[in-house]
Amino acid sequence: VSxxxxxxxxxxxxxYFMYVAIESFGSISVATFWxxxxxxxxxxxxxxxxxxxxxxxxxxxxxxxxxxxxxxxIDGGIPTLxxxxxxxxxxxxxxxxxY
Length: 99
Prior knowledge:
mainly alpha
């Protein structure tokens, strides 16, 4: 087994791990978000705000996928993208904590 083959195996393992982590987080975070919304909004607030929440979510989905497809133009590439995603996740936790 050559060193090059070991590096390839390590990168494949990292890719599989990140795929599982991202897919798991995506499923859990959506359910957690809507659970939080349902627990913290009354019926009238929900009627007034759910449309805005959905609109902002769609804008976020479009911008996120655009950034992901143009990752080669970002200084630092994929590691910078993961760092930015981590900061956004941390920011979400801080917002929820102090909400």
